[in-house]
Design a protein that fits this description.
single chain, about 75% helix, about 0% strand, mainly alpha, 16 helices, about 375 residues
């Protein structure tokens, strides 16, 4: 009779739970994707508010969060305006590019041995883009509905955050348990904030460098391309591929007489991405995310398959959160070790450490701890908030 060890049984249960969880995430993607995006935006706004409080000491706590919300909405609206404004001019320029595109198609056709090259109009007719209009309209409608749902979720998350500390006290009456839960929460929050900071700074560096190169070469819509490269930088790996290949392709269209501008632009963009990705990024990232590079690529594919483009955007923060949570349990710690880069998914922060005492300065201030043991139970719980 074969006896199965408890560890093997536990690992098998964890493996089956991961598969069942992935199936549930895919099945409930229409519900969970807006909620995950709203939580991500809430963390971003909360981080923005705490940065403003650190840089502006006289800023009241009650003003910091509304100010961060307003500034975030303004930045988002400004980004949409930049894309919409430049997209209109870009589409109008495509009409002037039609003869150049025909020349490029003819040169490529002759290079591969096709004597009668098709024109751009013939290619469009063969592709029959009208059949994709319905799908495109449905996608835009779904995007608008998801955006509204994300904003609704975000409003409720921000409104309910004031009771988060009380819920932690009710869930974990003992201080050691509560400190362990706060360490876990801070690890996830710090990982998301660090990811946002890294992607923003490196994206700005890549976008500025790309704009300088494109402006020197005289590429049309250089600012628009640089802005798209900055937005694409928030999608790991795939964003870099988009930024490296699309501008050179349009350089071929703009300069049909020579491939040299496109080649120079491609090499320059590759050099910029290489310098930022191999010199700047490791120095900024350090041990903050502690994720294996192969896991970053794998998480991009997995979350993209589960949730599409939003999953690609959230792939790294979601994987960091999963790694931190899995490291808290004996049965799943081996998965967290495989996901980490140095084999230490805990990041060297023991449970119940003093790091848990770092309370969110934007959160509702805690009441002072009562001095006498005979105080009512309600005041004792409020006093525990400060501890």
């Amino acid at each position: 009779m074969t006896v199965t060890s408890p560890s093997a049984t536990r690992n098998a249960v964890v493996f089956l739970a991961v598969i069942a969880g992935g199936a549930a995430l895919f099945w409930m993607r229409d519900i969970l994707t807006p909620l995950a995006l709203a939580a991500f935006l809430a963390v971003m706004i909360d981080s923005f508010a705490r940065v403003m409080m650190a840089r502006i000491p006289k800023l009241p706590q009650r003003v910091a969060l509304p100010t961060a919300v307003v500034l975030s909405i303004v930045l988002f609206g400004l980004s949409v305006w930049v894309v919409a404004e430049n997209s209109a001019g870009f589409v109008n320029q495509l009409k002037d590019y039609a003869p150049r595109l025909n020349d490029v198609i003819a040169r490529i056709a002759h290079a591969v041995g096709i004597h009668v090259a098709p024109t751009l109009g013939e290619l469009i007719t063969q592709l029959n883009p009208s059949r994709y209009v319905g799908a495109a309209a449905q996608s835009l409608q779904n995007f608008a509905a998801s955006a509204v749902l994300v904003l609704i979720y975000l409003g409720f998350i921000i409104a309910s955050r004031r009771g988060f500390t009380r819920k932690i006290v009710a869930l974990f009456p003992q201080r050691a348990e509560r400190d362990g839960a706060m360490v876990l929460f801070h690890r996830i929050r710090d990982g998301v904030e660090q990811y946002l900071w890294i992607q923003t700074v490196t994206g700005l560096m890549i976008a500025v460098g790309a704009w300088v190169v494109m402006a020197l070469l005289g590429l049309d819509n250089a600012f628009f391309w640089a802005f798209l490269i900055f937005l694409a930088s928030y999608i790991p790996i795939l964003g870099g591929a988009i930024g490296c290949f699309l501008p050179p392709l349009f350089a071929i269209v703009q300069f049909p007489d020579s491939f040299m501008p496109a080649l120079v632009l491609f090499v320059s963009l590759q050099a910029i991405y290489f310098a930022v990705g191999n010199i700047v990024l490791p120095r900024m990232q350090g041990d903050s995310l502690n994720m294996d590079p192969t896991v970053v690529l794998l998480s991009l594919a997995v979350w993209g398959a589960l949730w599409g483009v939003p999953g690609m955007f959230l792939s790294t923060p979601l994987t960091v959160a999963c790694m931190v949570i899995l490291a808290q349990f004996d049965g799943s710690r081996w998965i967290a070790i495989l996901l980490s880069e140095d084999g230490d998914p805990q990041g060297g922060v023991p449970e119940g450490s003093a790091a848990a005492a770092d309370q969110d300065p934007v959160a509702e201030p805690a009441a002072p701890k009562p001095a006498r043991k005979s105080a009512p139970r309600r005041k004792v719980e409020q006093g525990d908030l400060k501890s």
